[in-house]
Amino acid sequence: MVTWFRLIKASKKSSTKLLKQIPYKQKNPLKKLSQKALKEFLDEKAALYETPEFLNTDPIQVPAKFSIQEDAEIAGFLTATIAWGNRKSILTNAHKLMDIMGQTPHDFVMNYKADKQLELFEGFVHRTFNHIDLAYFIEGLQHLYTQYETMENYFNQFSSFPRINDSITHFKQDFFSLPHLQRTTKHISDPSKNSAAKRINMFFRWMVRSNKNGVDLGLWTKINSNQLSCPLDVHSGNVARKLGILTRKQNDAKALLELDTALRKMDPFDPVKYDYALFGLGVFEKF
Predict the structure, then answer these.
(1) Among 2, 15, 20, which residue's Cα sits nearest to residue 285?
(2) Which of 116, 133, 262, 286 has its CA 20 to 30 A from that of 36?
């Protein structure tokens, strides 16, 4: 852990030098930075951050602790759902969720009875996601797993989509097919309404990308890494703009498509590896 942060400190110095070379306030900052140089820089940063040490500070540590796929899927989906705001708070509440579920998410979901267990969620809240929202999410997951057995099986029906991001609207409609409060639907974003859907795209990354570097889980096999979209947030968006690979000011679905297109040019097989570079530069290096 200490060694990792020392590497980040040294890496930050090289990033600062590069930043001085990029006139990012101009319309086309890449005029003075070649595509090759940019790719080499981002490849280096992606390799720096995609290491097991990353788990110590990231919400992916929650699903990563489960060896059974269904447990990891449910833990990952619920953790990603509340993954906004203070990272310490996200981790605290995600682990609290697992405790509520007895550290056996799949068994809990499949055996959940709303008329007897709703009180288990009382007092749980993460920002605007409260115990009523959580109760519906458990019911929604129970319905989905009863029909498809795994979340992977559900999303496999969209495995021919060029971008799995385009399946999210269908998923949201299916997930909220049971009686629910309208307020609860806001906790799953909708790309058809111009949302970048950062949290569920992050969940896809966790499930799909290979575990060869000890971070993502690589549990799903029919969806490929080249179908993933970058989990676009304020950190990755700001860094991407400074580097000239994103011009749109809003972090919305149109910006996500622009960013995806740029990242696919650098690596058409695994474009979302650059999420580590963009996020790490923003959060750890204040790039």
Answers:
(1) 15
(2) 286
H or E segment at 79?
A: helix 69-81
Q: What is the chain's Cα-based Rg?
A: 19
Strand-pairing partners, residue 280, are none
- Please, what is the end-to-end C-alpha distance for the chain in angstroms? 21
Kindly report the length of the chain: 287
Separate counts of helices (H) and strands (E) for the chain: 14, 2
The Cα 146–Cα 168 span in angstroms is 20
Token readout for 17 is 């030098």
- The continuous run of DSSP H or E covering 130 comes out as strand 129-130
Helix (H) or strand (E) holding 222: none
- Are the beta carbons of 139 and 122 closer than 8 angstroms? no
pLDDT tens-digit profile, the chain (287 residues): 556 556 666 666 666 556 555 544 545 554 467 889 999 999 999 999 999 999 999 999 999 999 999 999 999 999 999 999 999 999 999 999 999 999 999 999 999 998 888 888 999 999 999 999 999 999 999 999 999 999 999 999 999 999 999 999 999 999 999 999 999 999 999 999 999 999 999 999 999 999 999 999 999 999 999 999 999 999 999 999 999 999 999 999 999 999 999 999 999 999 999 999 999 999 999 88
Burial zone of 161 (CB within 10 Å; 0-12 exposed, 13-18 middle, 19+ buried): middle
Instruction: Please answer whether residues 285 and 15 qualify as being in contact, where contact means their C-beta atoms are separated by less than 8 angstroms.
Output: yes
Please name the residue that has the structure tokens 């609207």: 169
Q: Tokens representing 234?
A: 């304020």
- Report how far Cα 224 is from the mean position of its chain's Cα atoms: 16
